[in-house]
TrEMBL record:
Pfam annotation, one family: Flavin_Reduct
Listed InterPro entries: Flavin_Rdtase-like_dom (IPR002563), NADH-dep_flavin_reductase (IPR050268), Split_barrel_FMN-bd (IPR012349)
PANTHER family found in the cross-reference section: FLAVIN REDUCTASE (PTHR30466), FMN REDUCTASE (NADH) RUTF (PTHR30466:SF1)
Keyword check for Oxidoreductase: yes
GO BP terms in the entry: pyrimidine nucleobase catabolic process
A GO MF term: riboflavin reductase (NADPH) activity
The Flavin reductase like domain, residue ranges: 10-149
Organism: Salibacterium qingdaonense
Keywords: Oxidoreductase
Lineage: Bacteria, Bacillati, Bacillota, Bacilli, Bacillales
Official protein name in the record: NADH-FMN oxidoreductase RutF, flavin reductase (DIM6/NTAB) family
Amino acid sequence: MDDRMFKTAMGKFATGVTVITTEFDDQVRGMTANAFMSVSIDPKLVLISVANKARMLDWIKQSGHFAVNILSESQQDKSMIFAGQLQDREVEFERFEGLPVIEDSLVTLACDVYETHLAGDHTLFVGAVKNLQLQDRQPLTIYEGKYKDVSDKAATEV
């Protein structure tokens, strides 16, 4: 299988959209990511995956902490800004647990780096969740590389 086929197959998995934020030397950095997951409840751990060529990698390593901003459906522009798809847009950050975070996110998780693992062309950061904020809104989702509307057509509780 070639790289394109693998990427197409991974795009068949619908995911939420996050922006990972951190700060080091008074400079705030962020990146859009859908490689995020819950790892453990006790202790409360999450995982993010950052490309080894991404500038964000060194920022998280140096700061030792990051925030996961799970975006709501009204925040597609924030996703596009941090993915480099929208230029010349300013983003105002709020502070939560000492970290820069995106206002009105569906969920905000403040994390300390718990473990780091090199995995192929990415680095996996396991974050220990210090605190969280959440709101009741619809999530921003992506499927096959496109933003999708999530509606409760025939919602069945899992």
